[in-house]
Design a protein that fits this description.
By secondary structure, chain A is mostly beta strands. In chain A, 0% of the residues lie in helices and 53% in strands. In chain A, the strands form three sheets. In chain A, strands 2, 5, 6, 10, 11 and 12 form a six-stranded mixed β-sheet that branches. Classes of the chains: A mainly beta (116), B mainly beta (112).
Chain lengths: 116, 112
C-alpha cells in the first residue's frame, strides 16, 4: 500500500520570502510523483511532476521540487513567493507499473498563505 | 486540446432529495474517469473511477453511485442526499496509459 504525508497543514509566509512545502511518501514499488495546486473554489491544476530522469523538476511559475529516493521525499520549494501563490497544494503519488489502475494517492494538502 | 466540463457549478439541495452531477470530457477518447469529494478543510477522497463504458469501481461505500453511459460522460448520482454529502465534487480524467490526472472546475454541493 502507498501513502503520502504532507507534513504541514498550513504554511504562512510573507511575500518575497522563500517557502518549502514538505511531502513524504511510502511505497513498496517505484512511483511517479506530482504536485497539484488548487486556488479557492477551483479544480486542481498540475504544478509539476516527476516521472523519470533529473530528480529536480521545475514549473513555469518558479516552483521546483526534488525527488529524493533515499528519503522518500518530494518537497516543493519557491525562492520568492507572491500573493498570487496563496492556494492549497497537494502532493500525490502513483505506481509506475499500474496497469489499468491509474489511481493517485493523495496527501491531505498544505494551505499556503502569502501575506503582504 | 482536451477540456473537461462539470455542471452545475453550485447546487443547494434538501436532505432526502436526489442528486445528479454530470462530467464530460472533450478532445480525447477512452479516458479513465474519476469522481472525488473534497470536504471543507480536508483532502481529496476518491469516490469512483472508471476505465471504460459501464465499468465503475467504487472506493468508498456510501449512498452515492456513478455511471458511465458514454465514453466521455461520467455521472454521479444519489437517490437520497444526506447532510454529510455536502462538499466540493471534482471530476478528473487521465489518458489510458498515463497517471497524470486533469481536473474539472468542480461542483459545490450544499445539503440542507
Amino acid at each position: 500500500a502507498q501513502s503520502v504525508t504532507q507534513l504541514d497543514s498550513q504554511v504562512p509566509v510573507f511575500e518575497e520570502a522563500p517557502v518549502e512545502l514538505r511531502c513524504n511518501y511510502s511505497s513498496s514499488v517505484s512511483v511517479y510523483l506530482f504536485w497539484y495546486v488548487q486556488y479557492p473554489n477551483q479544480g486542481l491544476q498540475l504544478l509539476l511532476k516527476y516521472l523519470s530522469g533529473s530528480t529536480l523538476v521545475e514549473s513555469i511559475n518558479g516552483f521546483e521540487a526534488e525527488f529524493n529516493k533515499s528519503q522518500t521525499s518530494f518537497h516543493l520549494r519557491k525562492p520568492s513567493v507572491h500573493i498570487s501563490d496563496t492556494a492549497e497544494y497537494f502532493c500525490a503519488v502513483s505506481s509506475i507499473n499500474a496497469g489499468n489502475n491509474r489511481k493517485l494517492i493523495w496527501g491531505l494538502g498544505t494551505s499556503l498563505a502569502v501575506n503582504p | 486540446s482536451q477540456t473537461i466540463h462539470q455542471w452545475p457549478a453550485t447546487l443547494v439541495q434538501p436532505v432526502g432529495s436526489p442528486l445528479s452531477l454530470e462530467c464530460t470530457v472533450e478532445g480525447t477518447s477512452n479516458p479513465n474517469l474519476y469522481w472525488y469529494r473534497q470536504a471543507a478543510g480536508r483532502g481529496l477522497q476518491l469516490l469512483f473511477y472508471s476505465v471504460g463504458i459501464g465499468q465503475i469501481s467504487s472506493e468508498v461505500p456510501q449512498n452515492l453511485s456513478a455511471s458511465r453511459p458514454q465514453d466521455r460522460q461520467f455521472i454521479l448520482s444519489s437517490k437520497k442526499l444526506l447532510l454529510s454529502d455536502s462538499g466540493f465534487y471534482l471530476c478528473a480524467w487521465s489518458r489510458l496509459d498515463h497517471n497524470e490526472q486533469f481536473f474539472g472546475p468542480g461542483t459545490r454541493l450544499t445539503v440542507l
